Amino acid sequence: MGDGEPSLRPADVTTALDTALTALRAADAAFDYRVGGTSAALLQGVRLPAGDIDLLVARREHVDTFAAALSSFPCLYPASWLPASSQYFTRYEINGVQLEISTVEWPVDADGMECVGPGPWRHYVVVTCGSHRVPVVRLELRLATELLRDRPDRYEPLLDHMGAHGFDSDLLRTAMNARDLPAERRRMIQERLTSASPA
After folding, report:
1. Whole-prediction pTM
2. CB hemisphere CA count around 78 (13 angstroms)
3. How far apart (Å, rounded) are the C-alpha atoms in residues 29 and 65?
């Protein structure tokens, strides 16, 4: 999301997801998925800039099934393989919100990454979006991604929220190790969150 672009509100994300998942349910399709990216943080109560919704699925046919279910909505990028990022990817517009659905097909064993390997499938919470219960990737994994990207406009709100509401220290350590963040930065983040955590 570039400078000056409007950020999504939680209600934008909830409404678009509810609409998309209702279309998927109407197509009688069911498979696992995860909401990741900044929209996952928004859905968990973090106020930070978000420009779209990212849905992770395990198989390419799930992307195709979702695309078929969303065929009445504007398709901004037809389902196709993106070799540079090892993704099978599509993008739709739902109620003015961009919804991206993809696989991420990197061979990764690490358990602490947000959108590759086993991490997103093991570490998530379920939130309500309209008539749906939606699995969203844990904030600890998102924070490690934003620290790696060095985006303070994203990681500072995450740190504030996690400091106020609590976090899983072991999971955060796993996520920062998986992203190979420098040890000094990992210690600084742990100390900041631990000192800010509610008693």
Report:
1. 0.92
2. 0
3. 7
In the three-class reduction of DSSP (H, G, I as helix; E, B as strand; rest coil), residue 26 is classed as helix
Cβ within 8 Å of residue 120, ≥6 positions away = 34, 36, 56, 113, 114, 137, 141
CATH class of 10-196: alpha beta
Contact predicate 102/88, CB 8 Å: yes
Which strand ranges, in their side-by-side order, compose the sheet holding 97-102? 75-82, 87-94, 97-102, 53-57, 33-36, 132-137, 124-129
The alpha-carbon radius of gyration of the chain (Å, integer) is: 17
Per-residue pLDDT of the chain (199 residues; tens, 9 = 90+): 344 456 899 999 999 999 999 999 999 998 999 999 999 999 999 999 999 999 999 999 999 999 999 999 999 999 999 999 999 999 999 999 999 999 999 988 889 999 999 999 999 999 999 999 999 999 999 999 999 999 999 999 999 999 999 999 999 999 999 999 998 888 889 888 987 766 5
97-102 vs 53-57, strand pairing mode: parallel
Entry field: residues in the chain: 199
Structure tokens at 163: 């400091």
Among the listed residues 60, 63, 61, the one whose alpha carbon sits nearest the alpha carbon of residue 75: 63
Nearest 10 degrees: Cα torsion 38, 86, 17, 24: -170
Helix (H) or strand (E) holding 126: strand 124-129
Closest by alpha carbon to 24, among 72, 71, 69, 90? 69
